[in-house]
Amino acid sequence: MSLAALEVNLVVIPGCLIFLLYFVPVAVVSRTVSQMLRILEKLSFAKFTILSALAIATSVAFLTDTVKWHSTYGSKPKPLFPDISISLQFDNKRLRLERNIYIHLLAFILCLSIKKLSTFDFKTPVQSGKMKQE
User: Fold this and answer.
1) Which of 44, 66, 77, 122 has the fewest Cβ atoms within 10 Å of its own Cβ atom?
2) Residue 55: CB atoms within 10 Å
3) What confidence tens digit (pLDDT) does each residue in 61-83 have?
4) Is residue 84, in this structure, part of any structural domain at all?
5) 12 Cβ partners below 8 Å, 6+ apart?
6) How many domains does the chain have?
7) Is 132 among the domain residues?
8) Quick one: which of 111, 119, 104 has its CA closest to 18?
9) What's the domain range around 116?
10) Model's pTM, two decimal places?
11) Which own/partner contact pairs does 18-23 have at CB distance under 8 Å and 24+ positions apart?
12) pLDDT tier at 127 (50, 70, 90 boundaries)?
């Protein structure tokens, strides 16, 4: 199992599920997910939480893969290979690296958005600006 597959299975899929459960139109589900994430966010070491660690790790992975892609494929033209199989191998390596970049970016955005959503209070109803003034 590759590192990207591990990241997809342990970060992206649960992150998508948690993110979608926030917006289920059932108040009990949103409150339960919010309370579970608050408990998870309370486990911290000097205000360094699990979601912060995941966000930092995925951003570092994203940046290293981006630098690697840019140094290998960015400014250089595609070389001409004598055999089509060598050309396909070259393209497959490039596409695999690009896929990993997108996976890291998605995981990073999900971690930050879940971290932000965990600060919202779903116990009190949200009121619009007009209702607050009246």
Assistant:
1) 77
2) 21
3) 999 999 999 998 888 788 888 88
4) yes
5) 103, 106, 107, 110
6) 1
7) no
8) 111
9) 3-127
10) 0.79
11) 18/114, 19/110, 19/113, 19/114, 19/117, 22/117
12) low
